[in-house]
Amino acid sequence: MMFYKSSDHLTPVSVEEYHRISTLLAKEYRILDEERFSDWLDLLHPEIHYWMPGIENRRRENPLEYGFFDSKHMAYFDDAIRDIKRRVSRFSQPSAWAENPGTRNVHIVAGIEAFYGEEAGEYCVYSTFQNIRSRGLDEEYIFSGRRYDTWSLVDGVLKLKKRLILMPNATLTCKNINTFI
C-alpha cells in the first residue's frame, strides 16, 4: 500500500487553493488545542486512515517497505473513523486518568506544500508540525515531525481522508501519546 506519493510528479495548487488549505490546517490545530473534538471529527472523511507507524533504526542496506517504517509493523496509530471516535469519546470519561488533569496542547503547522491529487477534488498536502504537550506542574513533551495528508472534497467541504504522521524518534519518551497530530 503506497500511503503517500512523492510530490515530484504532482501539480501545485493555485494560490487561492493554497490559502484555503493552509487556513484549514491552522483551523484544525486550533480546534484540537481548544479540545473541540466533535468539530474536529466533522473535518474527517468517513473513510479516513490515520496512521503513525513506529520508526525503526535500520541500516541503509536493509531498508523496510518505506525506508524507516513498514505497514506490517508496529504503529502508534492505525485508525479508521470508528477508532478515532472511540478515542475522542474516551477523553470525556472519568476513567481517562491520563487526561485528569487535562493535557494542554499547542500545535504548530509549517512547511505546507499542497498539490492536486490524482482524483478530482483531491489534494495531497505535506506539512511539518510541532505538538507541545503540557500536563500537571512540570510535564512537558514536544513532538515534531512530518505529515502526509490526503484531503478530499465531500459536498464542497474538504475532509481529511488520509494522514501519515512520521516522527523521527525511534523511541518516544513520554508517558502516553494521548493526542491527535
UniProtKB/TrEMBL annotation:
Q: In which pathway does it act?
A: Aromatic compound metabolism
Give the molecular function GO annotations.
3-phenylpropionate dioxygenase activity
User: What are the EC numbers?
Assistant: 1.14.12.19
Q: Look up the record and give one Gene Ontology term from the biological process aspect.
A: 3-phenylpropionate catabolic process
Question: Tell me, what's a Pfam family for it?
Answer: Ring_hydroxyl_B
Keywords carried by this UniProt record:
Aromatic hydrocarbons catabolism, Dioxygenase, Oxidoreductase
Protein family (similarity comment): Belongs to the bacterial ring-hydroxylating dioxygenase beta subunit family.
Q: What is this protein's name? A: 3-phenylpropionate/cinnamic acid dioxygenase subunit beta
